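Whiteboard transcription, Tuesday session. T.W. wrote the structure tokens on the left side:
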């Protein structure tokens, strides 16, 4: 079987990598992207103001560093934008009630949403992990829990930002993305 003539080589147009586009974006656009990932205006401003970043790891390290400087008010603002991940489809209603009760007890004790990074948890194990973590963390004193919540928030934000800048499209691809309308 003979093949027809081959087409001449051509190159695809150069599309900017997400990090290049982020580095080159106007500050307002970069802050808006970061606000969806980080949930804090101050955190978003700090990361935006230190552009350009030579690589993704540098940007993630800067976001981590900026997270450690969040004031209690900044942390509260970022936590207000968070929600628990959806439970796997088919989860029985008693599980929803148990999680709702545990979440309500947590929020009553600490005054903010419960956050947990589940990126390394199999979806079938997420309910057990969430309930175990809420119950365990309810024993924390408020300052200790603020530190734990800030670390979980930092891990969530790092995951969202990494996904976005690896080309996933938006910061809400994390399992802990807020519910629609938040």
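and on the right, the sequence the group agreed on:
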């Amino acid at each position: 079987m003979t093949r027809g003539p081959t087409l001449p080589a051509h190159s695809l147009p150069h599309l900017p990598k997400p990090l290049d586009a982020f580095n080159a974006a106007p500050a307002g656009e970069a802050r808006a992207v970061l606000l969806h990932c980080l949930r804090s205006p101050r955190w978003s401003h700090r990361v935006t103001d230190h552009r350009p970043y030579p690589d993704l790891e540098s940007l993630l390290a800067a976001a981590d560093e900026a997270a450690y400087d969040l004031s209690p008010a900044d942390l509260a603002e970022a936590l207000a934008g968070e929600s628990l991940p959806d439970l796997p489809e088919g989860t029985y209603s008693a599980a929803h009630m148990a999680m709702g009760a545990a979440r309500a007890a947590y929020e009553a004790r600490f005054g903010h949403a419960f956050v947990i990074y589940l990126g390394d948890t199999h979806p079938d194990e997420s309910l057990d992990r969430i309930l175990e973590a809420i119950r365990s963390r309810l024993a924390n004193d408020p300052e200790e829990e603020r530190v734990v919540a800030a670390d979980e928030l930092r891990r969530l934000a790092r995951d969202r930002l990494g996904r976005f800048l690896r080309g996933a499209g938006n910061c809400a691809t994390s399992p802990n993305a807020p519910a629609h309308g938040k």
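Someone added at the bottom: Helices lie at 18-24, 27-38, 41-49, 56-67, 72-80, 93-110, 126-137, 142-168.
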